[in-house]
Protein backbone atom coordinates (compact mmCIF):
# COMPACT_ATOMS: atom_id res chain seq x y z
CA UNK A 1 0.00 0.00 0.00
CA UNK A 2 1.52 3.33 -1.06
CA UNK A 3 1.01 6.07 1.46
CA UNK A 4 0.13 9.50 0.17
CA UNK A 5 0.43 11.13 3.59
CA UNK A 6 2.02 10.08 6.87
CA UNK A 7 1.54 12.30 9.91
CA UNK A 8 3.58 11.25 12.94
CA UNK A 9 3.41 12.64 16.48
CA UNK A 10 2.36 16.06 15.25
CA UNK A 11 2.35 18.74 17.93
CA UNK A 12 1.46 22.40 17.52
CA UNK A 13 1.59 24.77 20.45
CA UNK A 14 0.49 28.40 20.49
CA UNK A 15 2.06 29.60 23.73
CA UNK A 16 0.27 27.65 26.46
CA UNK A 17 -2.38 26.23 24.11
CA UNK A 18 -1.77 22.86 22.49
CA UNK A 19 -3.74 22.93 19.24
CA UNK A 20 -2.42 19.60 17.91
CA UNK A 21 -1.48 17.02 20.47
CA UNK A 22 0.70 14.10 19.37
CA UNK A 23 -1.48 13.34 16.35
CA UNK A 24 -0.58 10.46 14.04
CA UNK A 25 -2.44 9.11 11.04
CA UNK A 26 -1.87 7.75 7.52
CA UNK A 27 -3.64 8.24 4.26
CA UNK A 28 -3.22 5.73 1.46
CA UNK A 29 -2.99 6.78 -2.17
CA UNK A 30 -6.50 6.98 -3.63
CA UNK A 31 -8.10 6.86 -0.19
CA UNK A 32 -10.60 9.40 1.15
CA UNK A 33 -10.37 10.21 4.85
CA UNK A 34 -12.81 12.30 6.86
CA UNK A 35 -11.42 14.46 9.67
CA UNK A 36 -14.17 15.30 12.14
CA UNK A 37 -14.42 17.07 15.46
CA UNK A 38 -16.32 19.88 17.18
CA UNK A 39 -15.59 23.55 16.58
CA UNK A 40 -12.11 24.44 17.80
CA UNK A 41 -10.92 20.81 17.69
CA UNK A 42 -7.90 21.82 15.60
CA UNK A 43 -8.90 20.39 12.20
CA UNK A 44 -7.94 23.45 10.17
CA UNK A 45 -4.70 23.74 12.15
CA UNK A 46 -3.81 20.22 10.97
CA UNK A 47 -4.48 21.28 7.36
CA UNK A 48 -2.36 24.40 7.78
CA UNK A 49 0.55 22.34 9.10
CA UNK A 50 0.33 19.86 6.23
CA UNK A 51 0.40 22.75 3.77
CA UNK A 52 3.25 24.54 5.56
CA UNK A 53 1.15 27.61 6.33
CA UNK A 54 1.89 26.87 9.99
CA UNK A 55 5.07 25.17 11.19
CA UNK A 56 4.54 22.31 13.65
CA UNK A 57 6.22 22.46 17.05
CA UNK A 58 7.35 18.85 16.64
CA UNK A 59 6.51 15.71 14.68
CA UNK A 60 6.91 14.76 11.03
CA UNK A 61 4.81 14.99 7.89
CA UNK A 62 5.67 12.82 4.90
CA UNK A 63 4.17 13.21 1.45
CA UNK A 64 4.53 10.15 -0.80
CA UNK A 65 7.30 8.97 1.52
CA UNK A 66 9.24 12.26 1.53
CA UNK A 67 9.59 14.41 4.63
CA UNK A 68 8.13 17.83 3.77
CA UNK A 69 8.27 19.65 7.11
CA UNK A 70 11.00 22.02 5.96
CA UNK A 71 9.45 22.84 2.58
CA UNK A 72 7.58 26.04 1.80
CA UNK A 73 3.90 25.95 0.84
CA UNK A 74 4.67 26.35 -2.87
CA UNK A 75 7.23 23.54 -2.70
CA UNK A 76 4.67 21.25 -1.02
CA UNK A 77 2.12 22.07 -3.71
CA UNK A 78 4.70 21.19 -6.36
CA UNK A 79 5.08 17.82 -4.58
CA UNK A 80 1.37 17.15 -5.08
CA UNK A 81 -0.77 18.42 -2.19
CA UNK A 82 -3.20 21.33 -2.29
CA UNK A 83 -6.11 22.61 -0.21
CA UNK A 84 -9.37 24.51 -0.25
CA UNK A 85 -10.46 26.87 2.51
CA UNK A 86 -13.51 27.07 4.81
CA UNK A 87 -14.39 30.39 3.23
CA UNK A 88 -13.50 30.38 -0.49
CA UNK A 89 -10.68 32.77 -1.30
CA UNK A 90 -11.12 33.75 -4.92
CA UNK A 91 -9.37 36.60 -6.73
CA UNK A 92 -12.51 38.68 -6.71
CA UNK A 93 -11.73 41.00 -9.62
CA UNK A 94 -10.30 38.30 -11.89
CA UNK A 95 -12.45 36.23 -14.22
CA UNK A 96 -13.15 32.53 -13.70
CA UNK A 97 -10.59 31.83 -16.42
CA UNK A 98 -7.93 34.03 -14.80
CA UNK A 99 -8.55 32.51 -11.36
CA UNK A 100 -7.84 29.08 -12.83
CA UNK A 101 -4.86 30.54 -14.71
CA UNK A 102 -3.21 31.44 -11.39
CA UNK A 103 -3.48 27.80 -10.29
CA UNK A 104 -1.98 26.63 -13.57
CA UNK A 105 0.98 29.00 -13.47
CA UNK A 106 4.45 27.47 -13.11
CA UNK A 107 6.42 28.90 -10.19
CA UNK A 108 8.98 30.46 -12.54
CA UNK A 109 9.18 34.16 -13.39
CA UNK A 110 10.67 33.42 -16.79
CA UNK A 111 7.85 31.09 -17.79
CA UNK A 112 5.24 33.44 -16.39
CA UNK A 113 6.56 36.26 -18.59
CA UNK A 114 7.42 34.40 -21.78
CA UNK A 115 5.01 31.46 -21.67
CA UNK A 116 1.48 31.71 -23.06
CA UNK A 117 -1.48 30.75 -20.88
CA UNK A 118 -3.02 27.39 -21.77
CA UNK A 119 -6.52 28.62 -22.59
CA UNK A 120 -7.74 25.13 -23.56
CA UNK A 121 -6.65 23.67 -20.24
CA UNK A 122 -8.26 26.60 -18.39
CA UNK A 123 -11.56 25.93 -20.15
CA UNK A 124 -11.23 22.19 -19.60
CA UNK A 125 -10.71 22.62 -15.85
CA UNK A 126 -13.60 25.07 -15.60
CA UNK A 127 -15.87 22.64 -17.38
CA UNK A 128 -14.65 19.69 -15.31
CA UNK A 129 -16.05 21.34 -12.17
CA UNK A 130 -19.32 22.29 -13.87
CA UNK A 131 -18.83 25.78 -15.32
CA UNK A 132 -20.46 26.50 -18.68
CA UNK A 133 -18.25 28.10 -21.37
CA UNK A 134 -20.16 31.38 -20.99
CA UNK A 135 -19.10 31.54 -17.31
CA UNK A 136 -15.40 31.74 -18.12
CA UNK A 137 -15.35 35.52 -18.47
CA UNK A 138 -17.49 36.22 -15.40
CA UNK A 139 -15.60 37.87 -12.57
CA UNK A 140 -15.38 35.88 -9.35
CA UNK A 141 -17.24 38.63 -7.46
CA UNK A 142 -20.33 37.84 -9.56
CA UNK A 143 -20.43 34.18 -8.48
CA UNK A 144 -22.73 32.56 -5.89
CA UNK A 145 -21.25 30.50 -3.03
CA UNK A 146 -21.66 27.18 -4.85
CA UNK A 147 -19.84 28.52 -7.89
CA UNK A 148 -17.09 29.97 -5.67
CA UNK A 149 -16.54 26.48 -4.22
CA UNK A 150 -16.38 25.07 -7.73
CA UNK A 151 -13.91 27.77 -8.70
CA UNK A 152 -11.73 26.96 -5.71
CA UNK A 153 -11.85 23.31 -6.70
CA UNK A 154 -10.79 24.16 -10.23
CA UNK A 155 -7.89 26.33 -9.03
CA UNK A 156 -6.80 23.60 -6.59
CA UNK A 157 -6.95 20.96 -9.35
CA UNK A 158 -5.02 23.30 -11.65
CA UNK A 159 -1.97 23.04 -9.38
CA UNK A 160 -1.71 19.40 -10.48
CA UNK A 161 -2.02 18.09 -6.91
CA UNK A 162 -3.40 14.57 -6.44
CA UNK A 163 -3.88 14.89 -2.69
CA UNK A 164 -6.59 17.41 -1.92
CA UNK A 165 -7.38 18.77 1.53
CA UNK A 166 -10.98 20.00 1.57
CA UNK A 167 -11.87 22.29 4.47
CA UNK A 168 -15.60 22.58 5.26
CA UNK A 169 -16.37 21.88 1.68
CA UNK A 170 -20.16 22.07 2.12
CA UNK A 171 -20.32 25.19 4.29
CA UNK A 172 -22.80 27.80 3.07
CA UNK A 173 -24.13 25.66 0.23
CA UNK A 174 -27.74 24.88 -0.69
CA UNK A 175 -28.77 21.21 -0.85
CA UNK A 176 -28.55 21.36 -4.66
CA UNK A 177 -25.04 22.75 -4.49
CA UNK A 178 -24.03 20.11 -1.91
CA UNK A 179 -25.18 17.41 -4.35
CA UNK A 180 -23.19 19.04 -7.14
CA UNK A 181 -19.96 19.23 -5.09
CA UNK A 182 -20.45 15.66 -3.77
CA UNK A 183 -20.78 14.44 -7.35
CA UNK A 184 -17.58 16.24 -8.27
CA UNK A 185 -15.70 14.65 -5.36
CA UNK A 186 -16.97 11.18 -6.32
CA UNK A 187 -15.84 11.78 -9.87
CA UNK A 188 -12.38 12.80 -8.68
CA UNK A 189 -12.17 9.76 -6.39
CA UNK A 190 -12.82 7.55 -9.38
CA UNK A 191 -10.01 9.35 -11.18
CA UNK A 192 -7.60 8.33 -8.40
CA UNK A 193 -7.43 11.51 -6.31
CA UNK A 194 -6.73 11.22 -2.59
CA UNK A 195 -8.78 13.26 -0.12
CA UNK A 196 -8.53 14.49 3.43
CA UNK A 197 -11.83 16.15 4.17
CA UNK A 198 -13.28 18.27 6.96
CA UNK A 199 -17.01 18.89 7.20
CA UNK A 200 -19.64 19.43 9.83
CA UNK A 201 -22.23 18.08 7.41
CA UNK A 202 -21.72 14.43 8.40
CA UNK A 203 -24.55 12.94 6.27
CA UNK A 204 -23.11 14.62 3.17
CA UNK A 205 -19.58 13.53 4.05
CA UNK A 206 -20.32 9.87 4.86
CA UNK A 207 -20.64 8.53 1.28
CA UNK A 208 -17.51 10.42 0.23
CA UNK A 209 -15.02 8.89 2.68
CA UNK A 210 -13.52 5.42 3.16
CA UNK A 211 -12.90 6.00 6.85
CA UNK A 212 -12.70 8.78 9.40
CA UNK A 213 -10.69 10.06 12.33
CA UNK A 214 -12.12 12.20 15.11
CA UNK A 215 -10.14 14.72 17.11
CA UNK A 216 -10.86 17.01 20.01
CA UNK A 217 -8.50 19.72 21.26
CA UNK A 218 -5.95 18.38 18.84
CA UNK A 219 -6.01 14.88 20.33
CA UNK A 220 -7.10 11.77 18.43
CA UNK A 221 -10.36 10.32 19.81
CA UNK A 222 -11.10 7.58 17.28
CA UNK A 223 -9.87 6.18 13.97
CA UNK A 224 -11.77 3.67 11.84
CA UNK A 225 -14.81 3.28 9.62
CA UNK A 226 -17.16 6.27 9.52
CA UNK A 227 -19.86 4.34 11.42
CA UNK A 228 -17.42 3.10 14.08
CA UNK A 229 -15.98 6.56 14.64
CA UNK A 230 -19.42 8.12 14.96
CA UNK A 231 -20.48 5.30 17.31
CA UNK A 232 -17.45 5.81 19.53
CA UNK A 233 -18.44 6.88 23.04
CA UNK A 234 -15.83 9.61 23.39
CA UNK A 235 -16.74 11.01 19.98
CA UNK A 236 -20.44 11.09 20.85
CA UNK A 237 -19.62 12.77 24.14
CA UNK A 238 -17.50 15.47 22.53
CA UNK A 239 -19.59 15.98 19.41
CA UNK A 240 -23.13 15.47 20.67
CA UNK A 241 -22.65 16.13 24.37
CA UNK A 242 -23.84 12.62 25.23
CA UNK A 243 -22.59 11.37 28.55
CA UNK B 1 1.65 37.19 -29.30
CA UNK B 2 -0.56 34.62 -27.58
CA UNK B 3 1.47 35.38 -24.47
CA UNK B 4 0.12 38.93 -24.41
CA UNK B 5 -3.34 38.40 -25.91
CA UNK B 6 -2.94 41.50 -28.11
CA UNK B 7 -5.98 42.71 -30.06
CA UNK B 8 -6.08 45.12 -33.04
CA UNK B 9 -7.76 47.85 -30.98
CA UNK B 10 -4.80 47.81 -28.57
CA UNK B 11 -2.42 48.70 -31.40
CA UNK B 12 -4.77 51.39 -32.70
CA UNK B 13 -5.08 53.00 -29.25
CA UNK B 14 -1.31 52.92 -28.69
CA UNK B 15 -0.64 54.36 -32.15
CA UNK B 16 -3.18 57.17 -31.53
CA UNK B 17 -1.65 57.92 -28.13
CA UNK B 18 1.90 58.03 -29.53
CA UNK B 19 0.79 60.22 -32.45
CA UNK B 20 -0.95 62.64 -30.10
CA UNK B 21 2.14 62.94 -27.91
CA UNK B 22 4.40 63.46 -30.94
CA UNK B 23 2.18 66.18 -32.41
CA UNK B 24 1.76 68.05 -29.15
CA UNK B 25 4.63 70.57 -29.73
CA UNK B 26 2.83 71.68 -32.91
CA UNK B 27 -0.35 72.38 -30.97
CA UNK B 28 0.79 74.09 -27.77
CA UNK B 29 3.28 76.72 -26.66
CA UNK B 30 6.56 76.29 -24.78
CA UNK B 31 4.99 77.10 -21.41
CA UNK B 32 2.49 74.28 -21.78
CA UNK B 33 5.23 71.98 -23.03
CA UNK B 34 7.23 72.62 -19.85
CA UNK B 35 4.16 71.70 -17.79
CA UNK B 36 3.80 68.57 -19.87
CA UNK B 37 7.43 67.64 -19.25
CA UNK B 38 6.76 67.63 -15.53
CA UNK B 39 3.55 65.65 -16.12
CA UNK B 40 5.50 63.04 -18.10
CA UNK B 41 8.00 62.57 -15.24
CA UNK B 42 5.21 62.42 -12.67
CA UNK B 43 3.46 59.83 -14.86
CA UNK B 44 6.61 57.69 -14.84
CA UNK B 45 6.88 57.97 -11.04
CA UNK B 46 3.20 57.03 -10.81
CA UNK B 47 3.57 54.02 -13.14
CA UNK B 48 6.52 52.88 -11.07
CA UNK B 49 4.51 53.21 -7.84
CA UNK B 50 1.51 51.48 -9.39
CA UNK B 51 3.50 48.40 -10.48
CA UNK B 52 4.30 47.70 -6.85
CA UNK B 53 1.50 49.27 -4.85
CA UNK B 54 -1.41 49.43 -7.30
CA UNK B 55 -0.96 45.78 -8.27
CA UNK B 56 0.21 43.96 -5.17
CA UNK B 57 -1.50 46.21 -2.63
CA UNK B 58 1.78 46.89 -0.78
CA UNK B 59 1.52 50.64 -0.29
CA UNK B 60 4.96 52.16 -0.71
CA UNK B 61 5.39 55.51 1.01
CA UNK B 62 9.09 55.37 0.22
CA UNK B 63 9.03 55.91 -3.53
CA UNK B 64 10.65 59.35 -3.34
CA UNK B 65 13.56 57.49 -1.71
CA UNK B 66 13.97 55.36 -4.85
CA UNK B 67 13.57 58.34 -7.18
CA UNK B 68 16.10 60.23 -5.06
CA UNK B 69 18.69 57.42 -5.25
CA UNK B 70 18.49 57.56 -9.05
CA UNK B 71 18.79 61.34 -9.07
CA UNK B 72 21.64 61.54 -6.57
CA UNK B 73 23.60 58.69 -8.16
CA UNK B 74 23.69 60.31 -11.58
CA UNK B 75 24.29 63.72 -9.96
CA UNK B 76 27.27 62.52 -7.96
CA UNK B 77 28.72 60.48 -10.83
CA UNK B 78 28.51 63.27 -13.39
CA UNK B 79 29.44 66.25 -11.19
CA UNK B 80 31.90 64.72 -8.75
CA UNK B 81 33.55 62.05 -10.90
CA UNK B 82 33.05 63.40 -14.41
CA UNK B 83 31.38 60.24 -15.65
CA UNK B 84 29.33 60.83 -18.82
CA UNK B 85 25.54 60.62 -18.55
CA UNK B 86 25.46 57.69 -21.00
CA UNK B 87 27.08 55.65 -18.22
CA UNK B 88 25.80 57.46 -15.14
CA UNK B 89 22.10 56.92 -15.89
CA UNK B 90 22.31 53.12 -16.37
CA UNK B 91 24.46 52.97 -13.22
CA UNK B 92 21.84 55.08 -11.40
CA UNK B 93 19.14 52.57 -12.40
CA UNK B 94 21.19 49.65 -11.12
CA UNK B 95 22.10 51.45 -7.89
CA UNK B 96 18.43 52.27 -7.28
CA UNK B 97 17.44 48.64 -7.79
CA UNK B 98 20.24 47.38 -5.55
CA UNK B 99 19.85 50.08 -2.90
CA UNK B 100 16.10 49.67 -2.81
CA UNK B 101 16.46 45.92 -2.62
CA UNK B 102 18.84 46.04 0.34
CA UNK B 103 16.92 48.64 2.32
CA UNK B 104 13.27 48.12 1.44
CA UNK B 105 13.02 44.47 0.44
CA UNK B 106 13.05 43.13 4.00
CA UNK B 107 9.97 45.30 4.51
CA UNK B 108 8.07 43.21 1.93
CA UNK B 109 7.80 40.51 4.56
CA UNK B 110 5.51 42.74 6.59
CA UNK B 111 2.09 43.77 5.47
CA UNK B 112 -0.43 46.57 5.26
CA UNK B 113 0.14 49.76 7.18
CA UNK B 114 3.38 48.40 8.68
CA UNK B 115 4.95 48.15 5.22
CA UNK B 116 3.77 51.67 4.43
CA UNK B 117 5.23 53.01 7.69
CA UNK B 118 8.59 51.32 7.22
CA UNK B 119 8.92 52.73 3.70
CA UNK B 120 7.90 56.18 4.94
CA UNK B 121 10.51 55.95 7.68
CA UNK B 122 13.22 55.08 5.13
CA UNK B 123 12.33 58.15 3.06
CA UNK B 124 12.43 60.42 6.13
CA UNK B 125 15.72 58.87 7.16
CA UNK B 126 17.21 59.70 3.78
CA UNK B 127 15.99 63.28 4.06
CA UNK B 128 17.87 63.61 7.34
CA UNK B 129 20.96 61.59 6.35
CA UNK B 130 21.74 62.88 2.86
CA UNK B 131 22.69 66.40 4.01
CA UNK B 132 25.03 65.14 6.76
CA UNK B 133 26.66 62.03 5.32
CA UNK B 134 29.47 62.85 2.87
CA UNK B 135 28.31 66.40 2.09
CA UNK B 136 31.38 66.65 -0.15
CA UNK B 137 29.54 64.25 -2.48
CA UNK B 138 25.87 65.08 -1.88
CA UNK B 139 26.34 68.82 -1.49
CA UNK B 140 24.61 68.76 1.91
CA UNK B 141 21.40 70.77 2.21
CA UNK B 142 22.29 72.82 -0.86
CA UNK B 143 22.47 69.69 -3.00
CA UNK B 144 24.19 69.46 -6.37
CA UNK B 145 23.72 72.04 -9.10
CA UNK B 146 24.81 72.50 -12.72
CA UNK B 147 24.07 68.91 -13.69
CA UNK B 148 24.74 68.35 -17.40
CA UNK B 149 21.62 69.00 -19.46
CA UNK B 150 20.48 66.28 -21.83
CA UNK B 151 18.53 68.55 -24.15
CA UNK B 152 18.24 72.22 -25.06
CA UNK B 153 14.86 73.96 -25.25
CA UNK B 154 11.35 73.00 -24.24
CA UNK B 155 10.54 71.05 -27.40
CA UNK B 156 13.55 68.73 -27.14
CA UNK B 157 13.01 68.35 -23.42
CA UNK B 158 9.41 67.41 -24.12
CA UNK B 159 10.32 64.83 -26.76
CA UNK B 160 12.80 63.23 -24.38
CA UNK B 161 10.35 63.12 -21.45
CA UNK B 162 7.41 61.98 -23.59
CA UNK B 163 9.50 59.36 -25.39
CA UNK B 164 10.77 58.03 -22.11
CA UNK B 165 7.27 57.98 -20.63
CA UNK B 166 5.87 56.14 -23.66
CA UNK B 167 8.69 53.58 -23.51
CA UNK B 168 8.13 53.03 -19.77
CA UNK B 169 4.35 52.82 -20.24
CA UNK B 170 4.62 50.36 -23.12
CA UNK B 171 7.10 48.20 -21.24
CA UNK B 172 4.90 48.15 -18.12
CA UNK B 173 1.76 47.51 -20.17
CA UNK B 174 3.32 44.55 -21.98
CA UNK B 175 4.72 43.13 -18.74
CA UNK B 176 1.37 43.41 -16.98
CA UNK B 177 -0.38 41.59 -19.82
CA UNK B 178 1.68 38.46 -19.18
CA UNK B 179 0.78 35.82 -16.61
CA UNK B 180 3.14 37.58 -14.23
CA UNK B 181 0.90 40.65 -14.35
CA UNK B 182 -2.10 38.48 -13.49
CA UNK B 183 -0.20 36.94 -10.57
CA UNK B 184 0.79 40.38 -9.20
CA UNK B 185 -2.80 41.55 -9.51
CA UNK B 186 -3.92 38.39 -7.70
CA UNK B 187 -1.50 39.11 -4.82
CA UNK B 188 -3.29 42.42 -4.28
CA UNK B 189 -6.60 40.56 -3.97
CA UNK B 190 -5.55 37.60 -1.87
CA UNK B 191 -1.91 36.85 -1.21
CA UNK B 192 -2.65 33.62 0.72
CA UNK B 193 -4.54 32.21 -2.25
CA UNK B 194 -1.64 32.98 -4.57
CA UNK B 195 0.65 31.13 -2.18
CA UNK B 196 -1.98 28.38 -1.97
CA UNK B 197 -1.84 28.11 -5.77
CA UNK B 198 1.79 27.05 -5.52
CA UNK B 199 3.47 30.38 -6.31
CA UNK B 200 6.24 31.99 -4.32
CA UNK B 201 4.77 35.37 -3.45
CA UNK B 202 8.09 36.61 -2.04
CA UNK B 203 9.73 36.08 -5.43
CA UNK B 204 6.83 37.76 -7.24
CA UNK B 205 6.81 40.77 -4.90
CA UNK B 206 10.59 41.09 -5.12
CA UNK B 207 10.39 41.14 -8.89
CA UNK B 208 7.63 43.77 -8.85
CA UNK B 209 9.74 45.78 -6.46
CA UNK B 210 12.82 45.55 -8.68
CA UNK B 211 10.90 46.64 -11.78
CA UNK B 212 9.26 49.44 -9.83
CA UNK B 213 12.62 50.58 -8.41
CA UNK B 214 14.26 50.40 -11.83
CA UNK B 215 11.64 52.69 -13.37
CA UNK B 216 11.79 55.06 -10.38
CA UNK B 217 15.59 55.23 -10.66
CA UNK B 218 15.47 55.80 -14.42
CA UNK B 219 12.85 58.53 -14.22
CA UNK B 220 14.57 60.10 -11.20
CA UNK B 221 17.91 60.25 -13.02
CA UNK B 222 16.47 61.83 -16.18
CA UNK B 223 14.39 64.24 -14.09
CA UNK B 224 17.49 65.37 -12.20
CA UNK B 225 19.25 66.21 -15.47
CA UNK B 226 16.14 68.03 -16.70
CA UNK B 227 16.00 70.13 -13.51
CA UNK B 228 19.75 70.71 -13.57
CA UNK B 229 20.02 70.58 -9.79
CA UNK B 230 19.03 68.37 -6.91
CA UNK B 231 18.46 69.02 -3.22
CA UNK B 232 17.30 66.61 -0.51
CA UNK B 233 14.02 68.52 -0.17
CA UNK B 234 13.26 68.34 -3.89
CA UNK B 235 13.31 64.53 -3.89
CA UNK B 236 12.96 62.99 -0.41
CA UNK B 237 9.79 64.91 0.23
CA UNK B 238 6.34 63.84 1.30
CA UNK B 239 4.72 66.22 -1.21
CA UNK B 240 6.29 64.24 -4.07
CA UNK B 241 4.85 61.10 -2.51
CA UNK B 242 1.36 62.63 -2.27
CA UNK B 243 1.49 63.80 -5.87
CA UNK B 244 2.42 60.29 -7.03
CA UNK B 245 -0.28 58.55 -5.00
CA UNK B 246 -2.99 61.06 -5.86
CA UNK B 247 -2.09 60.81 -9.57
CA UNK B 248 -2.56 57.03 -9.41
CA UNK B 249 -5.79 57.26 -7.43
CA UNK B 250 -7.29 59.91 -9.69
CA UNK B 251 -6.35 58.04 -12.87
CA UNK B 252 -7.00 54.52 -11.68
CA UNK B 253 -4.72 52.08 -9.88
CA UNK B 254 -3.82 48.80 -11.51
CA UNK B 255 -3.83 50.25 -15.04
CA UNK B 256 -1.06 51.83 -17.09
CA UNK B 257 -3.01 54.62 -18.71
CA UNK B 258 -4.66 55.57 -15.38
CA UNK B 259 -1.49 56.94 -13.71
CA UNK B 260 -0.68 58.86 -16.92
CA UNK B 261 -4.14 60.44 -17.04
CA UNK B 262 -3.95 61.15 -13.30
CA UNK B 263 -0.52 62.78 -13.59
CA UNK B 264 -1.55 65.04 -16.48
CA UNK B 265 -4.87 65.91 -14.85
CA UNK B 266 -3.19 66.84 -11.61
CA UNK B 267 -0.28 68.81 -13.03
CA UNK B 268 -2.52 70.85 -15.33
CA UNK B 269 -5.08 71.43 -12.58
CA UNK B 270 -2.36 72.80 -10.30
CA UNK B 271 -1.03 75.03 -13.07
CA UNK B 272 -4.52 76.28 -13.86
CA UNK B 273 -5.11 77.07 -10.20
CA UNK B 274 -1.76 78.87 -9.78
CA UNK B 275 -3.01 82.40 -10.68
CA UNK B 276 -5.97 82.11 -8.30
CA UNK B 277 -4.13 80.31 -5.52
CA UNK B 278 -0.43 81.09 -5.73
CA UNK B 279 0.40 79.41 -2.42
CA UNK B 280 0.26 75.83 -1.27
CA UNK B 281 -3.48 76.13 -0.58
CA UNK B 282 -4.14 74.88 -4.10
CA UNK B 283 -2.96 71.48 -2.92
CA UNK B 284 -6.15 71.38 -0.86
CA UNK B 285 -8.16 71.54 -4.07
CA UNK B 286 -6.56 68.53 -5.67
CA UNK B 287 -6.64 66.72 -2.32
CA UNK B 288 -10.38 67.37 -2.16
CA UNK B 289 -10.90 66.19 -5.74
CA UNK B 290 -8.96 63.01 -5.00
CA UNK B 291 -11.02 62.46 -1.85
CA UNK B 292 -14.37 62.95 -3.59
CA UNK B 293 -13.33 60.75 -6.52
CA UNK B 294 -12.05 58.10 -4.15
CA UNK B 295 -15.35 58.12 -2.23
CA UNK B 296 -17.53 57.75 -5.33
CA UNK B 297 -15.23 55.92 -7.75
CA UNK B 298 -12.21 54.41 -5.95
CA UNK B 299 -10.94 53.00 -9.24
CA UNK B 300 -10.46 56.47 -10.68
CA UNK B 301 -11.10 58.13 -14.04
CA UNK B 302 -10.28 54.94 -15.96
CA UNK B 303 -13.17 53.11 -14.30
CA UNK B 304 -15.52 55.96 -15.22
CA UNK B 305 -14.30 55.75 -18.85
CA UNK B 306 -14.72 51.95 -18.88
CA UNK B 307 -18.27 52.25 -17.50
CA UNK B 308 -19.19 54.76 -20.22
CA UNK B 309 -17.63 52.57 -22.95
CA UNK B 310 -19.40 49.42 -21.74
CA UNK B 311 -22.73 51.33 -21.55
CA UNK B 312 -22.22 52.57 -25.10
CA UNK B 313 -21.44 49.05 -26.26
CA UNK B 314 -24.51 47.78 -24.39
CA UNK B 315 -26.82 50.35 -25.96
CA UNK B 316 -25.47 49.53 -29.44
CA UNK B 317 -26.06 45.78 -28.95
Tell me the Rg of chain B in angstroms: 20 Å
- CATH architecture term of chain A: 3-Layer(aba) Sandwich
First-last Cα distance of chain B? 29 Å
State the secondary-structure class of chain A: alpha/beta
> Element order, helices and strands of chain A?
EEEHEEHEHHHHEHEHEEHH
Q: What is the beta-strand fraction of chain B?
A: under 5%
Assign an overall shape of chain B: globular
Q: How many domains comprise the coordinates of chain A? A: 1
Low-confidence stretches of chain B: none
Largest sheet strand order of chain A: 6-7-8-3-9-10
Please render the helix and strand layout as text.
The complex is a heterodimer of chains A (243) and B (317).
Chain A: E1 3-14, E2 17-28, E3 32-36, H1 43-51, E4 58-63, E5 66-67, H2 73-79, E6 81-83, H3 96-104, H4 109-114, H5 119-128, H6 145-158, E7 163-167, H7 175-190, E8 194-198, H8 202-205, E9 211-216, E10 219-224, H9 226-231, H10 233-240
Parallel strand pairs in A: 3-8, 3-9, 6-7, 7-8
Antiparallel strand pairs in A: 1-2, 1-4, 4-5, 9-10
Chain B: H1 8-27, H2 30-56, H3 63-80, H4 85-104, H5 112-129, H6 135-138, H7 154-176, H8 179-189, H9 191-195, H10 201-227, H11 232-235, H12 238-251, H13 257-273, H14 282-296, H15 300-316
Polypeptide structure, described:
- The complex is a heterodimer of chains A (243) and B (317).
- Chain A has 243 residues and is of the alpha/beta class.
- Helices cover 37% and strands 26% of the residues of chain A.
- Chain A is built from ten helices and ten strands.
- Chain A has helices at 43-51, 73-79, 96-104, 109-114, 119-128, 145-158, 175-190, 202-205, 226-231, 233-240, and strands at residues 3-14, 17-28, 32-36, 58-63, 66-67, 81-83, 163-167, 194-198, 211-216, 219-224.
- In chain A, the strands form two sheets. A six-stranded mixed sheet of chain A has the order 6-7-8-3-9-10, sandwiched between helices. A four-stranded antiparallel sheet of chain A has the order 2-1-4-5, covered by helices on one side.
- In chain A, a hairpin with a 2-residue loop joins strand 1 and strand 2 (17-28).
- Chain A is globular, with a radius of gyration of 18 Å.
- The termini of chain A are far apart.
- The mean pLDDT of chain A is 91.
- Chain B has 317 residues and is an all-alpha fold.
- Chain B is built from 15 helices and no strands.
- Chain B has helices at 8-27, 30-56, 63-80, 85-104, 112-129, 135-138, 154-176, 179-189, 191-195, 201-227, 232-235, 238-251, 257-273, 282-296, 300-316.
- The chains are: A alpha/beta (243), B mainly alpha (317).
